[in-house]
Design goal:
Distance between the termini: 87 Å
Helix content: 40-55%
Largest sheet: 8 strands, mixed
Number of domains: 2
Structural class: alpha/beta
Strand order of the largest sheet: 1-2-4-3-5-6-7-8
Order of helices and strands: HEEEHHEHEHEHHHHEHEHH
CATH topology of the largest domain: Rossmann fold
Length: 330
């Protein structure tokens, strides 16, 4: 090799090494910034009673609770992709908290809970919920209030561990049947690259800081709730646990359907998106899909509350009223 070519190769190698070194320094700086921001976020959320991680064996789940210990213990289970239920459920849960203990448990990959590479089977998710409550000293029996896909987990829980549960309310829960998701797994946007970038903390540069909220502010302030909700929702943006949940959605629903055990636990299903009394397709859907599901569980009535899928946001007082009616049946 000529001296000229040797010199050119050395120059290229030195350039690549320099670029790699600069990139490494940049990545390190971003990660340090992410760690600092994460610590700030946790302190802020802890200040508002929204950050309380408990060990479930190899991972930590965030458990938030408030209210009265004189009544029932109501455990809320979020739907698919709803990461900020400890904020967005408040207009409904604040009504119930005067006489009951309100508990939010974020499953792995949600809210302020840790991520996991374990498969998010229905069995694992429910066992993690139970471990989190036990680790935090929150004794049963529980009333489960589950939205959307959370209804599948509630169904699995009350079928496999009926001794834990004294009542269940489904907030427009996933309508289980023999083949709930015939298309198999759901498509989601959490690619391996995005999960990697999330781990580096690059997303931090796209979200505002919420740590400057004045000490005088509380959760009754709409702007505060919005900022905290944004912080919680972005803390676990793009993760392995939620990917697994998407991938296993069909298998989990089918397993839960097949393992339903009818019992006398009082249950109420709030039907929102299928609640029309004039549209025949929704009437047929209730008769042919929803009622067979409710009958299979046993002792479950239906309340028609027409509205959007996030019915707890649209009609929080009415949802709270339905939950209170269920409590009277216990």
């Amino acid at each position: 090799m000529s001296k000229g070519r040797t010199k050119a190769v050395k120059t290229i190698l030195i350039t690549f090494a320099a670029v790699a070194a600069v990139a490494a320094v940049g990545v390190g700086a971003v990660k340090i910034y992410d760690i600092q921001r994460t610590q700030e976020d946790r302190k802020l959320l802890e200040r508002f009673g929204l950050y309380h991680p408990v060990d479930v064996g190899g991972n930590k789940l965030n458990v938030v609770s408030y209210g009265s210990d004189e009544g029932h213990t109501i455990v809320f289970i979020s739907g698919l992709g709803v990461e900020d239920m400890s904020i967005t459920y408040r207009p409904m849960t604040d009504i119930l908290s005067e006489d009951n203990r309100i508990v939010f448990v974020d499953r792995a990959g949600y809210g302020m809970s840790g991520d996991t590479g374990d498969k998010m089977t229905a069995d694992k998710v429910v066992k993690d919920y139970r471990k989190a409550l036990e680790a935090d000293g929150i004794d049963g029996p529980y009333v489960l209030v589950a939205h959307s896909l959370g209804g599948m987990y509630a169904t699995y829980w009350e079928s496999h561990y009926p001794e834990d549960i004294e009542g269940v309310v489904f907030l427009d829960g996933t309508q289980l049947r023999e083949d709930t998701f015939p298309e198999g797994k759901l498509v989601n946007g959490h690619t391996s690259s995005e999960i990697f970038l999330n781990g580096l903390g690059l997303y931090r540069f796209s979200i505002p800081k919420a740590s400057d909220i004045p000490e005088t502010k509380d959760l009754n302030d709409e702007e505060v709730c919005s900022a905290l909700s944004y912080t919680i929702g972005n803390s676990t943006l793009w993760n392995r646990a939620m990917n697994s949940e998407y991938d296993l959605i069909s298998a989990n629903c089918n397993e839960t359907w097949d393992s339903i055990v009818a019992n006398d636990i009082p249950k109420t299903y709030i039907c929102a998106t299928w609640a029309s009394d004039t549209d025949q397709k929704y009437i047929d859907a209730r008769n042919n899909i929803l009622w067979p599901y409710l009958d299979k569980m046993g002792n479950c009535n239906m309340v028609l509350l027409p509205g959007i899928h996030l019915i707890y946001e649209q009609r929080p007082a009415e949802c709270a009223g339905v939950i209170e009616d269920l409590l009277k049946r216990i």
